[in-house]
Amino acid sequence: MPNGGSHESAHEASPYIELDRAAWAKLAHEVEDPLTQDEITALRGLGDQLDLREVREVFLPISRLLSLYAETAGRLHRDQEEFLHQATPPRTPFVIGLAGSVAVGKSTTARVLQHLLAHWPEHPNVALVTTDGFLYPNAELERRGLLQRKGFPESYDRRALLRFVVDIKSGKDEVEAPVYDHLTYDVVPDEKVRIKHPDIVIIEGLNVLQPARVRDDGRTGLAVSDFFDFSVYVDAKTSDIRDWYVSRFLRLRETAFRDPQSYFARYAAFSRDEAVAEATRIWDAINGPNLSANVLPTRSRATLVLRKAADHSVRYVRLRKI
Q: For residue 243, is it within any domain?
């Protein structure tokens, strides 16, 4: 790939524009940094390498691009009103889907984009919802024999998630989503997060870009991704993600796992070698197969792909042409 430019060859037509880090970073010129280092530290996930430079060179241009897409959707809504010669209902929220593997940094990406987008005056109300809350409770997963397949598509209440997104794109005044507690590793009973009149909604999760399933009667249903206005996939080499997962597991062993209320408290007493072996086993049995079978195949469906290097920094951006 040539430095500071597009990766597309004149002889290799592609539906994507690919820009390396240097070329993408140039798009951030003359834009004020909206986040401080303290804010970035608070947003950063465990194990993610994120600093002011990464925010400025990578995420600031993305937030501006997303803002342009959202503004364009607003203009299209007004044009549609004029075309129909009638006042239509208020414009529905601009919905962004964000996908990627466990431990790739998608949660940090979602939080950073939420805060950056909220700084643009055109859309100050930006909501973030993770699909973890739509996992079946552990008791239900155990009843269905799915506890060891948590994170696979069948472990989610896909109907509830689809209803949630449909309600958002229907323009409902208030929409509720279930809450997930990573400490207890379970959905919190009777607790909801309420979203009121958002300008933008970011929906982050492993499987949000999956296409619709074929029903038993042969018909194709709806998918959550059918209602996205823009989608992002956070990408990296599988071997790097595996290493990040093991490293994160070791950090959690020294922090969250030491809480007696943690679902994984038993791991706190593991030696380092035992913890590495267990993290590797979990990856090889659950997260790795889920990535290769269900998550990675959705990468090509994303509007924008962020490709990370081994040090967690974004090395290039691939954007679908319009």
A: yes
